[in-house]
Amino acid sequence: MENILILAGIFVLIIAFGIIAFAVFRTNANIKNINRTLEFQYNLFVKMQAVLKNKSATNAVAENAEMIYQDLLQNLIPVMAAIDVMPRNTNEHPLWRALGGIMDEYAKNPFALEKLRRAIKNNGEVSRNIDNYISLSAI
Questions:
Q1: Separation of alpha carbons 10 and 7, rounded Å
Q2: Is 14's pLDDT higher than 90?
Q3: Which of 102, 104, 108, 100 is nearest to 78 (CA)?
Q4: What is the rounded CA–CA span in Å between residue 64 and residue 56?
Q5: Cβ(71)–Cβ(136) below 8 Å
Q6: Is 126 exposed, middle or buried (0-12, 13-18, 19+ CB in 10 A)?
Q7: How many other CB atoms are found less than 10 A from the CB of residue 112?
Q8: Contact 75, 133 (CB under 8 A)
Q9: Which residues of 62-86 are buried (b: 16+ CB within 10 A; e: fewer)?
Q10: What is the pLDDT of residue 105?
Q11: How far apart are CA 65 and CA 136, in angstroms?
Q12: Torsions phi, psi for 66 (to 5 deg)
């Protein structure tokens, strides 16, 4: 009778160890799965951060370019007024419209270049704006 109780106890312990071992392996598998998921999420966050940095850098470049374009345009407006040139009537950036208006006027009337030369020579404000435009556009 004692042998049966000892064998039953050993059998119960073996079953308990088996259940515990199964639970440990199952938990280990879940932890590995969680680890893979967290690693994937981390890599995704790194990619998102890189994309956001690139967008931020792109936005900064666009803002700086817009400031430069506005400065160039501010220097072209008095020049265009001095030679009586109107900007193009398109949906482009105002700087490109202004430059296009000057090019269109020159294509229609080559004397526009002579008017520009005289305006630069005779008007200090126009000359200063041309100098500023050339120095800004060299940046």
A1: 5
A2: yes
A3: 102
A4: 12
A5: yes
A6: buried
A7: 18
A8: yes
A9: eeeeeeeeebbbebbebbbebbebe
A10: 86
A11: 11
A12: -65, -40
Q: At 1, is the secondary structure helix, strand, or coil?
A: coil
Q: Which two tokens stand for residue 14?
A: 């073996």
Mean pLDDT of the residues in the chain? 84
Vertex 79: Cα angle to 73 and 80 (nearest 5): 80
> 């890599």: which residue's tokens?
43
**How many residues in the chain?**
139
SS (H, E, C) 64-112: HHHHHHHHHHHHHHHHHHHCCCCCCCCCCCHHHHHHHHHHHHHHHCCHH
Q: Are 104 and 114 in contact (CB under 8 A)?
A: no
